[in-house]
Structure prediction request, 132 residues.
Amino acid sequence: MRDVGEDPPHDHDVIVRAQPRDDGEEVARPDGFYPVSMDLEFSGEMWFWKGPAPWHFVTVPDDECRDLESTAALVSYGWGMIPVTARIRETRWRTSLFPQDGRYLVPVKAAVRKAEKVGVGDLVTVRLTVDV
Prediction:
């Protein structure tokens, strides 16, 4: 791995860990628990956006986007961005998901593409951890 830290288990596509809140704040769920992180894993095709600030992305599939929406209000900042730790193969990096047309995009840095030898049109498996 090109980053330190242990990966969470990936028995399911989505793992939501929760802990009780006892600080008197309103809780996100009626059972008295609120999510503290969310882990997602999916595959998608790498694509290139040729806009004024060109960038490579992988689009998060619809089902995972619906899961992300459940935590977006707790973690998003400016323009609905969601901070995550992303991983493709052995390379991990911190980034933020871009919202676009009801979906989210994972920006993939040049260093990640180079390290993992991936490019436009390649199918990649992406793991995301959203900390809330």
Q: What stands out?
A: Residues 45 and 122 are 5 Å apart (CA to CA). The chain has two helices and seven strands. Confidence is low (pLDDT under 50) at residues 4-24. The first strand starts at residue 14 and ends at 20.
